[in-house]
Write a structure and sequence with these properties.
Number of strands: 12
Radius of gyration: 20 Å
CATH superfamily of the largest domain: PurM-like C-terminal domain
Shape: globular
Largest sheet: 6 strands, mixed
Strand order of the largest sheet: 1-2-3-6-4-5
Number of domains: 2
CATH architecture of the largest domain: Alpha-Beta Complex
Oligomer: single chain
Helix content: 25-40%
Structural class: alpha+beta
Distance between the termini: 24 Å
Strand content: 15-25%
Order of helices and strands: HHEEEHHEHEEEHHHEEHHEHEE
CATH class of the largest domain: Alpha Beta
Number of helices: 11
Length: about 325
């Protein structure tokens, strides 16, 4: 594939950014006739509304994207619900919130009870891993619009207003700790599928069938991060869910700083295969995929060891991957 392989595969991040900007421009003009409850968190992972003087309600929404295409081809829907939960709750924890519930939304051409049941089993498992409830949801049968299934969710959580994690306290010299991903998670599947389209999903050159590797559920980081935030030994200054845009997601933190990633986590073999067969350059790979790092935690230098001790039992392999720099708006990767 040529340069900007993701756009060639059918996904233009630049177009998406322009679309978001146009949408937000209109939504920012909403007049409710009363003072806004919104806590300003521009560009962050979740929105927060003030419930009272102490408590905020965190909200986020996300879906599984075209990972569902792989599930449909494999006729395996029992784990895709885990991905839906993960993509939502992992965003909420990045503002320091404790997720408490999620609603799911299934868009399909026709609701098959067997498929819906399998999706439900994954949602249940994901909810139990995250410690949340799923008290309701919606199924919309719109065969004139879609062929197949789409799965999204909207999650809510609670956060003390004076403990919202924005990243504004990050300082040069702070440590960036990387927490391993379980694989592709739920981003970049359009590019991945195009790069791997000549390989059967049963191909086992990576030690397991390719389809199983692509359907590996997204890691859920809730319990690890809640333990981190509760620790008196750790000063958490920023939390970043590494999704689309890769390590550039670090720039969503509020402080005017940069980041140097000098000890990146090991890259799973599936990413190397995508790069090789898709002709995707190293730079674009790190802009589209998590490349083995699903979450980044920014902590004070003295918090590095206790933070790793807390994260490691939940997600083996969590360790320092870099540091905060004074080069604002810049993410430099050295390997």
């Amino acid at each position: 594939m040529p340069q900007d392989a993701y756009a060639q595969a059918g996904v233009s991040q630049r177009a998406a950014d322009r679309g978001v900007a146009a949408l937000v421009a209109e939504l920012s003009r909403i007049e409710t006739g009363r003072p806004s409850r919104s806590v300003p968190l521009p560009g962050h992972y979740a929105s927060v509304l003030r419930l009272d003087d102490r408590t905020g309600l965190a909200l986020g929404t996300d879906g599984v994207g075209t990972k569902m295409v792989v599930a449909e081809r494999m006729r395996r829907f029992e784990t895709i619900g885990i991905d839906c939960v993960a993509m939502n709750v992992n965003d909420l924890i990045c503002v320091g919130a404790e997720p408490i519930a999620m609603l799911d939304f299934i868009l399909c051409d026709s609701a098959d009870p067997e498929i819906c049941g399998a999706i439900g089993r994954g949602l249940r498992e994901g909810a139990e891993l995250a410690g949340i409830e799923i008290p309701g949801g919606e199924i919309a049968q719109v065969g004139e619009i879609v062929a197949g299934y789409e799965l999204t969710g909207t999650a809510v959580g609670l956060v003390d207003l004076d403990r919202i994690v924005t990243g504004e306290r990050a300082r040069p010299g702070d440590v960036v700790i990387g927490v391993p991903s379980s694989g592709l998670h739920s981003n970049g599947y359009t590019l991945a599928r195009h790069a791997l389209e000549e390989i059967e999903l049963s191909d086992s050159r990576l030690g397991r069938p390719l389809g199983e590797i692509l359907l590996e559920p997204t890691a859920i980081y809730v319990r690890a991060v809640l333990d981190l935030l509760a620790s008196k030994r750790v000063d958490v200054r920023g939390l970043t869910h590494i999704t689309g845009d890769g390590l550039n997601n670090l720039l969503r933190l509020a402080a005017p700083v940069g980041f140097e990633i000098d000890e990146p986590l090991p890259v799973p073999a599936v990413f190397e295969l995508i790069a090789e067969l898709g002709g995707v350059g190293d730079e674009e790979m790190y802009e589209v995929f998590n490349m083995g790092c699903g979450l980044a935690c920014v902590v004070s230098p003295e918090s590095e060891q206790p933070a790793c001790e807390i994260l490691e039992p939940h997600h083996p392999g969590a360790r320092r991957i870099g540091a905060v720099t004074d080069r604002a708006g810049e993410v430099v990767r050295r390997s």
